[in-house]
Design goal:
Oligomer: heterodimer
Distance between the termini of chain A: 33 Å
Number of helices of chain A: 3
Protein name (chain B): SCP domain-containing protein
Order of helices and strands of chain B: HHHEHHEHHEEHHHE
Helix content of chain B: 40-55%
CATH class of the largest domain in chain B: Alpha Beta
Order of helices and strands of chain A: HHH
Number of strands of chain A: 0
Keywords (chain B): Membrane, Transmembrane, Transmembrane helix
Shape of chain A: elongated
CATH superfamily of the largest domain in chain B: CAP
Structural class of chain A: mainly alpha
Number of helices of chain B: 10
Radius of gyration of chain B: 27 Å
CATH architecture of the largest domain in chain B: 3-Layer(aba) Sandwich
Pfam families (chain B): CAP
């Protein structure tokens, strides 16, 4: 549920504030960081947190953020 | 056969790829991210090596922008603004100035304010405002973008404005062919009518004109006439250098569309790989150390939804 909230907030921030580039940049960064944080907390609660898991979430978040930046910084 | 093996290694969880498609490994995702950054750098370098390749094709008429603006005003219970030839000329001059000097801002690098264009074309204003847009493919998207921005919306829906001028110029800005829209709003000073262009030019040659008002903010109009300030010599309005004739039809690559298409393709590929991953893992009941595939699908799916909705175009 928390992940859904994070993703919905990110989606809303990026689409509704398309006129404010700085805000979009902040939302994109915040969503990426929140995603990684959610992954860490989720796996810590389930006792299967490993370095490889952290790297996987980090790589996915970085890729998503780079894609968003490549468009909003055009 | 080798290709099949390669694809198998890339997408299907197997012992050889540690029970996860190679494309989903952090190293591969990092390589994809670096590739995308490199693509953006290439798009920025391209204009220098091969000018006139990058650009945004557009079909925007000033009349359509005015019609849409008045439609928004009418929808909000406001009177329409009438097109003023002096403001049209001033807006066009501002657009050409931006292309000639290569800037994307309300104020030129040499300090030229948008209001100087008003005065140069004989428009003595009580209130004045400016909205700018670029890289939009049609008037509707540009007006909608302005309406979605509080400060620009304030300009469009300002009851103090009575007249409007639109300048649409096509040219090269920072190495990219684009269409710039300049939207000038104004209310003539008192009862004095706007001076026709020819008369204004004649006066500019020999008379030191005093600006009637100094706007305080760019996107919002001055609210009351200010005392006359120190005389300012208005230079004879000289024709601004026209941007070299551009043929938008010769533009091949839209940076925004290229990035959007590439990003969509990459995300589509990754989502497919994640879907295959989740199906195979559940079928074979493979236990492994890794992130939640569904979470990755949700995150990348959200990114894909955003990039499909985002449109080209900037406003200031």
């Amino acid at each position: 549920m928390l992940l859904i909230g994070i993703l919905l907030a990110g989606f809303a921030g990026l689409t509704l504030f398309s006129y404010d580039r700085n805000f979009q940049i902040a939302v994109a960064l915040a969503t990426g960081i929140s995603y990684v944080s959610w992954g860490l907390i989720h796996h810590h609660i389930h006792r299967d947190l490993h370095f490889e898991v952290f790297m996987e979430y980090l790589a996915v978040a970085i890729l998503g953020t780079v894609i968003i930046f490549s468009l909003i910084l055009q | 056969m080798q290709l099949l093996r390669f694809l198998h290694h890339l997408f299907i969880p197997h012992e050889s790829n540690n029970q996860k498609g190679k494309i989903l490994h952090p190293s591969s995702l990092t390589i994809i991210a670096v590739f995308l950054v490199g693509f953006q750098l290439l798009l920025n370098v391209f204009p220098r090596g091969l000018p006139r390749v990058l650009g945004y094709a557009a079909n925007i008429s000033p009349g359509e922008v005015i019609r849409l603006t008045n439609a928004q005003r009418a929808a909000n219970g406001l009177s329409t603004v009438t097109e003023n030839a002096n403001l049209d000329s001033a807006a066009l001059a501002k657009g050409n100035d931006m292309l000639a000097k290569g800037y994307w801002a309300h104020f030129a690098p040499d300090g030229t304010s948008p209001w100087s264009f008003f005065l140069s074309f004989g428009y003595k204003y009580q209130y004045a405002g400016e909205n700018l847009a670029r890289d939009f493919s049609n008037a509707n998207d540009a007006v909608n973008a302005w309406m979605n921005s509080p400060t620009h919306r304030e300009n469009i829906l300002n009851s103090k404005y009575k007249e409007i001028g639109i300048g649409v110029v096509e040219g090269n800005l920072a190495g990219v062919d684009t269409t710039v829209i300049v939207q000038f709003f104004g209310a003539p000073l008192g009862n004095s009518p706007s001076i026709p262009i020819a008369q204004a030019q004649e006066q500019g040659k020999s008379v030191a004109l005093k600006p009637s008002i100094a706007p305080k903010k760019l996107a919002t109009p001055s609210l009351s006439p200010e005392p006359t300030i120190a005389p300012v010599i208005i230079r004879t309005p000289t024709p601004l250098p026209q941007a070299s004739p551009q043929s938008i039809s010769s533009v091949f690559i839209s940076p925004f569309s290229s990035t959007k298409n590439l990003s969509s393709a990459v995300l589509g590929l990754l989502l497919m790989a994640l879907s295959i991953d989740i199906i195979v893992i559940r079928r074979k009941r493979i236990a492994r150390i890794g992130g939640r595939t569904l979470a990755h699908i949700a995150f990348l799916g959200m990114i894909l939804a955003v990039i499909l909705i985002l449109k080209a175009g900037q406003i200031i």
